[in-house]
Design goal:
By secondary structure, this protein is an alpha+beta fold. Helices cover 33% and strands 23% of the residues. The protein has 13 helices and 19 strands. The chain is globular.
Length: 484
């Protein structure tokens, strides 16, 4: 039986709550996390979620003598040592309730939310009808494996993927292009009757099917869920005639699929995710590790960006990451250089409306009225816990880009009763008296209306259909308020 530890971001977890932990548990966990950190290019999608830093010390979890503190990552770390299995879930802080730790049903609801955020972001996830969240082992990785295996088996049970692959073959009948250089070698060896040819052949043993087979074997070796393993072994059986070779993320990028077959693209996206986002390894015959970790800040930003692009509003003409021809892309110039080319301004979201440009900056932080928040030398708005550094950053964006309407997007929390109206901050540009910079903080609800009471059975897109519509409404309302 696996030992499960649930950590919420930045919330100290006393190790005394877990009985039977070995004396070297902290040391083993730190070894594992440091290795994952130093090899994270293997399991974090570099273009979207990769954390650039020179630090060789992991920042997934702060490990103290008697407690663990999760950093700004969500996902799972599963490892076994000497036959003992440990599952550590890193959970979003917006669901944290100090007085009520989540039960198994609520954990599955949290996993459902994470899958929703991922599915609406830059990567696609299957949403087939299945009991994928039911009877799980309170483990995000197992949930994702089960969803993938159920969907893929459903697809491959009714259809197969065949494609034209380039084949090199020595043949007596000429096909395709002759390799005259190779033929001269054959001729010299007395094999003048065989002609080396390169041609396209309609193959079942193609790169796509090889990738799927490899990923299924990989997942089958690590999952402890019997239904998932049965699904994966069923796929492997269907792919019995496909070459059993190792696959990489680069192989996924080389596959060309017909856009008509969207189900194959969904499966390929999953394979790419598993190959790039999962770290699986053994070392010293002591540890076996299986981990998926995603920076929560980046996921929140990509989720909001993707959902805003789906807003259907006559006022919103374009949603992008750049201000385009509006303003500069860099904040300063270094004298005597003539151009502004230092400290690039990386905007989270830029919205071009009918008659102006506005910037939205996502802040994955707890924001709420709290009289107990101590004002530290003016660093924090005492009432709303909005930091001065956030305001300074937005003013820099406004001055550098020439955009005078900027939004700060914060997530709502579990304990929030209703959508709260936050104050608008105004800053007069003293260098240009005609410019009044306005900063609009918004709390955006990225949870299901029933929060952790939702039923996780069924299609993911159906479960969160109303939530997605409500989120798009909130974002459109935020943009409209900035245009008033």
């Amino acid at each position: 039986m696996a030992q499960t530890i649930n950590l919420f971001e930045y919330d100290p977890f006393p190790l005394g709550q877990i009985s039977g932990l070995p004396d070297d548990f902290n040391k083993s966990l730190n070894q594992i996390l440091n290795r994952i950190w130093n090899e994270r290019k293997r399991f974090v999608p570099i273009s979207t979620y990769y954390a650039e830093t020179k630090s060789k010390k992991q920042n997934f979890i702060e490990i103290k003598e008697h407690e663990l503190i999760c950093g700004k990552w969500i996902g799972s770390v599963n490892f076994s040592k000497k036959g003992k299995q440990y599952n550590i879930n890193l959970l979003p802080k917006i669901f944290h309730r100090p007085e009520n730790p989540p039960n198994e049903s609520e954990l599955n609801a949290i996993f459902s939310h994470i899958l929703w955020w991922l599915s609406e972001s830059e990567k696609e996830f299957p949403t087939s009808q299945s009991n994928s969240m039911q009877g799980m082992q309170s483990d995000l990785l197992e949930v994702m494996i089960h969803i993938f295996s159920s969907y893929a088996l459903e697809v491959f049970s009714t259809s197969t993927h065949n494609s034209y692959d380039e084949v090199f073959e020595n043949t007596e009948n000429i096909r395709g292009k002759i390799d005259f250089s190779a033929y001269s070698e054959n001729y010299g060896r007395g094999n003048r009757h065989t002609v080396p040819c390169t041609y396209d052949s309609f193959q079942f043993d193609n790169r796509f099917n090889q990738i799927v087979r490899y990923v299924c074997k990989l997942l089958s070796s690590v999952t402890s869920n019997q239904n998932s393993r049965k699904n994966l072994e069923g796929i492997i059986f269907l792919f019995n005639e496909v070459s059993d070779i190792r696959a990489t993320v680069e192989d996924c990028d080389k596959v060309k699929l017909n856009p008509i077959h969207s189900e194959f693209k969904t499966i390929l996206d999953h394979c790419r995710m598993f190959l790039s986002s999962l770290s699986t390894f053994k070392w010293n015959n002591e540890f076996e590790v299986f981990a998926l970790l995603i920076p929560a800040e980046n996921l929140f930003e990509n989720f909001i960006y993707s959902m805003l692009k789906k807003v259907n509003s006559p006022n919103i003409k374009r949603v992008s990451r750049s201000t385009g021809n509006h303003g500069r892309s860099h904040l300063v110039r270094q004298i005597p250089r003539p151009n502004y080319d230092r400290f690039q301004m990386r905007h989270d979201i830029v919205v071009k409306t009918t008659d102006r440009v506005v910037i939205l900056d996502t802040k994955y932080k707890k924001i709420y009225p709290e009289e107990k928040v101590l004002e530290q030398d003016g660093e924090i708005d005492r009432k709303y816990n909005i930091s001065r550094s956030d305001i300074y950053q937005m003013v820099s964006y406004a001055v550098g880009s020439g955009v005078d309407r900027i939004a700060l997007i914060y997530p709502s929390l579990m304990k929030d009763k209703e959508q709260e109206e936050l104050p608008v901050y105004e800053i007069m540009d003293e260098f240009n008296k005609d410019t009044l910079i306005k900063i609009y903080p918004f709390k955006i609800n990225i949870m299901h209306e029933e929060k952790l009471s939702i039923s996780s059975k069924g299609r993911l897109e159906k479960i969160f259909e109303n939530s997605s519509e409500n989120l798009r409404f909130q974002l459109n309302k935020a943009v409209e308020k900035m245009l008033e």
